Amino acid sequence: MPVRKATLRVVNLGRICYHSALKIQQQHIKQHLESCSTPPNTLLLCEHEPIYTTGIRRAPYNLKEEQRLQALGADFCRTNRGGLITFHGPGQLVCYPILDLGCFKKSIRWYVCELERTVISMCRMFGIEATTSPDTGVWVGENKICAIGIHCGRYITSHGLALNCNTDLTWFQHIVPCGIVGKGVTSLSQELGRDVTLGEATPKLLEAFTEQFNCTLTYDLNSVETQ
């Protein structure tokens, strides 16, 4: 943990298409890499329109597979994050931390573990016992409740986590989520047997983030940043 608390700016992008959110991430990364001053570490929160995304380990999602998924009514994007294919869509809380790990700990492995612990702590606030596994992400039994896939260049992080709140889980039936055969997906709503909205989950995720990363937040959850 850092000796001094870092301050993170929280920006709520609202519901936004994946490609627009990606551009905003790139703008924040550029600020970190090119600014003479120290840009703020930022948490970008959002919800996406339906889209399947793949990471740097892309096989076997070739053009034919891409077209098959697009025919379902979702977009498709190849990205530079870690991991294989996953789904983003309405009812899923997506958090993109754009952090300079020099303000925390210069360890990618540490960072991914802290993201997992953050979500586990948040799930505990809901009375859900979540765990890690040899596979990245956060799990409830054999079902993944939160996918994690990041990119890190010069210790500046991007991409992040996607937590299923009241997501339509049938979208995942058309893929092998994260390339893991024999396991499923779940959501806060499915585990609790009631509707859990992003509005209910977001404050708990932020609370868990501040505790796990020993940081303070400055934010306006009603503001929306545009590209």
Structure description:
Catalyzes the transfer of endogenously produced octanoic acid from octanoyl-acyl-carrier-protein onto the lipoyl domains of lipoate-dependent enzymes. Lipoyl-ACP can also act as a substrate although octanoyl-ACP is likely to be the physiological substrate. Its EC number is 2.3.1.181. Its main location: mitochondrion. This is Octanoyl-[acyl-carrier-protein]:protein N-octanoyltransferase LIPT2, mitochondrial. Belongs to the LipB family. With 227 residues, the protein is of the alpha/beta class. The protein has a domain of 148 residues: Bira Bifunctional Protein, Domain 2 (BirA Bifunctional Protein, domain 2, 2-Layer Sandwich). 28% of the residues lie in helices and 30% in strands. The protein has five helices and eleven strands, in the order βαββαβββαββββααβ. The strands form two sheets. Strands 1, 2, 6, 7, 8, 9, 10 and 11 form an eight-stranded mixed sheet that branches. Strands 4-3-5 form a three-stranded mixed sheet, covered by helices on one side. Helix 2 links the parallel strand 3 and strand 4. 40% of the residues are buried. The mean pLDDT is 92.
In a few lines, what is going on in this structure?
Pathway: Protein modification; protein lipoylation via endogenous pathway; protein N(6)-(lipoyl)lysine from octanoyl-[acyl-carrier-protein]: step 1/2. β1, α1 and β2 form a beta-alpha-beta unit.
Radius of gyration: 17 Å
Say what the CATH topology of one domain is. Answer: BirA Bifunctional Protein, domain 2
Number of separate helices: 5
Spans with pLDDT under 50 lasting ≥5 residues?
none
The largest sheet, given as strand count, sense and whether it forms a barrel, is: 8 strands, mixed
CATH homologous superfamily heading of one domain:
Bira Bifunctional Protein, Domain 2
What spatial form do the alpha-carbon principal axes imply?
globular
Beta-strand residue fraction:
25-35%
Helix content: 25-40%
